């Protein structure tokens, strides 16, 4: 049975140019709950070099920073210090400077 959690994935994004964005995702939630996290394993689109990445840095909320041109679902498994884990999902959103969403979506389901 999965542990109950109020954790979620948050994101930031910046349009660089030529249909390319720099973006970051991290785990957001109550500070006490974040203190109980050991590490986060993110699963990105399979076209990424190293699509599975583990982040164990609490001070920046287990932030993963990278870049790309398309949107896709990001999956995360949050490993807690008590041995339990929580699975999270987030749909990456990328927008042009004028607010339009990127037209590049993925076919990975």
């Amino acid at each position: 049975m999965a542990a109950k959690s109020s954790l979620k994935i948050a994101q930031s994004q910046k349009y660089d140019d030529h249909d390319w964005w720099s973006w970051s995702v991290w785990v957001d939630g109550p500070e006490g709950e974040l203190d109980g996290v050991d590490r986060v394993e993110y699963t990105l689109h399979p076209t990424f070099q190293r699509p599975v990445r583990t982040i164990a840095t609490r001070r920046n909320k287990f932030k993963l920073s990278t870049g790309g041109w398309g949107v896709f679902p990001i999956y995360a498994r949050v490993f807690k210090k008590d041995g339990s884990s929580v699975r999270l999902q987030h749909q990456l959103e990328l927008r042009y400077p004028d607010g339009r969403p990127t037209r590049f979506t993925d076919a990975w389901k």
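The CA atoms of residues 37 and 80 lie 4 Å apart. The domain at 8-91 is CATH 2.60.40.1970 (Immunoglobulin-like).
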